[in-house]
Structure to design on (140 residues):
């Protein structure tokens, strides 16, 4: 289990140094105001990129969402029209957060993001089902 409780949140490394090299992703991170990985990202991304399994426990705002989203770039193939990843979250708020971060992160990559939240009348599921093609999905 990776635990991070340090007050020094960011590292001096670049995303490229920890294996995130796609220019569009680096650009999207910059648009999000993110220029260096956090310590939890520096520790976890290489493990996940090598198909390792980890449990991350860290403070709110420490970068856990990007820590698990960034390694997905190695396995999601935008040209594949099937659902390739489903991320489940325990609350509507977390589904919304993951959806917003993933949408910003994967902008321009051809990866579609669809958030499905149970017991809500926001947008009926049948109207969103066609979007599941080439999608990264999260729901609670």
């Amino acid at each position: 289990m990776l635990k991070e409780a340090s007050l020094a949140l960011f590292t001096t490394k670049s995303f490229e140094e920890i294996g995130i090299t796609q220019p569009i992703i680096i650009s999207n991170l910059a648009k999000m105001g993110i220029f260096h990985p956090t310590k939890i990202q520096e520790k976890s991304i290489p493990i996940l990129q090598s198909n390792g399994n980890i449990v991350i426990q860290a403070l709110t705002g420490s970068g856990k969402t990007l820590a698990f989203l960034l390694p997905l770039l190695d396995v999601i193939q935008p040209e594949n029209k099937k659902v390739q990843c489903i991320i489940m979250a325990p609350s509507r708020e977390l589904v919304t957060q993951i959806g917003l971060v993933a949408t910003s992160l994967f902008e321009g990559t051809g990866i579609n993001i669809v958030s499905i939240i149970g017991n809500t009348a926001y947008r009926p599921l049948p109207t969103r089902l066609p979007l599941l093609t080439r999608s990264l999905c999260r729901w609670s």
About this structure: The beta strands are 2-4, 56-58, 85-88, 112-116, 135-139. The chain has a mean pLDDT of 82.
